[in-house]
Each structure stands twice: as C-alpha cells, then as structure tokens.
Input
Amino acid sequence: MDVVGTDGKAPADSTPTPGPAGTPSGGGTPTVDNAEKWTQIQSSLSGHPHGTWAVSTVAALGTTVMVNSTAPGSFFAPSENKIHLNSSLTAATAASVFVHEAFHAWSSRTKHTADIQSLSRSDYVTAMVNEETTAVVNQISLVTEQGTTSAPGDVPSAAMYKAYTDAWKKAHDEATGDEAAKKAAGDEAGRKVVNGWFYDGTFVTSTTNQPYADYYGQSWDGVHKPPAGGS
Ligand SMILES: [Zn+2]
Output
C-alpha cells in the first residue's frame, strides 16, 4: 500500500545504495490501461536500477498496471494481480508509487509476503511493516538514482531523504571492515529510520489514512475474529 507522508524534517547530501530485492526472470513491458500515461511514467524509471527492476518484475509477474485507477489511493490488489495507481497522480509521482507497489506485487506473487493465517497478530503486523519499509527504501533508492533529493509525491520528502542519508552515511563511516560491510551497516541504519516512520505517525495509508500498525492489525482481526453476527 502506498504511504502518505506527514512529516517536515530537513535537505540531503550522501548517496545510499541499497540494491533491488531480486528480479524474477522474464521482463518486458507490463499490461497497462493507458499507454500514453505509462510512457510518461516509464520515462521517470528508465535508466535507474530500482525503476527498471520494478518494470521488469511487474512484467514478469504478469501484473496489470492501472495507471488511471479511480479506486481510493494506490495499492496492489493480490486477488486481481493489479497495481492501482490513482488517476490523480502526476506521471512522476505515479512512477515513485509504482516502485513501491511493485515490491508488494513481488512479495505477494513470490510468496514472500507475511501469512495472515499462520502468524500471530503482532508478528503479522511487524512483517507487513517490514515489507512496507523495503517498499519505501526502494523509493528512496530511486531518488538517489535519479540524482534528486526528494520524490515528487514526497515519499521521501526532502526531510525524509536527509534523515535517511544522514543515518546511512554515519553508520557507513563508523563501521569497520571492507566497503561491503560499511555499505551493509549504512543500509541497515537507513532502513531502521524508515521503519520508525511507520510507528511514529509519519506514514499513514493512502487508502484509509490509518497508521500502518492499526491498518494491518485490523486486517488480522478481520481474518481471525469475525464480528459476531457478521455476514
Ligand atoms: Zn505499501
């Protein structure tokens, strides 16, 4: 699910380099509902590893991209295997959101997503927030690859980008070992910052405007505790 930022922290300098999550074989171009807008979206993604990962992954998964969706917010719908990008988004913002939703599509279609049936409520919420965290880290990586310091949809905002890159750089520079170890330390520190935004009220869902822990907790409740007398 797409996130809505509500923060106002401070600008950026260093360059984090977290890698894509892994690409299924295949690639190509996804099926879309509007070729013209998709072309605009794709121009924001091409030449950038996290952008091209998202495009080739979604194509390989057979996921349809609704670039002019009229459903509330933006999200991946597992039952339809469709990414909904809200029609109100500019192409540049939709590109950022697409990178986010592509990770949910990948997580769902490759069975990496949390199992709502088998996990406890708290483990399910934690796992889903971790998935959201990676989706946002990928959006931040796209910003880095684009050579800018914020995304047009403000995930990340300039303040978020600075908070991420500051944490990344500090951990990277303080870590011992080779460059791979230093990068891993940076990635972990940056990821921790992003994860915190899901718990401190910085992020709410674009579909229901709820904090994520509440949203996923209620989803779990809906599966495990059907309301008395419910249909
Ligand atoms: Zn999400």
In short: The longest helix spans residues 121-146.
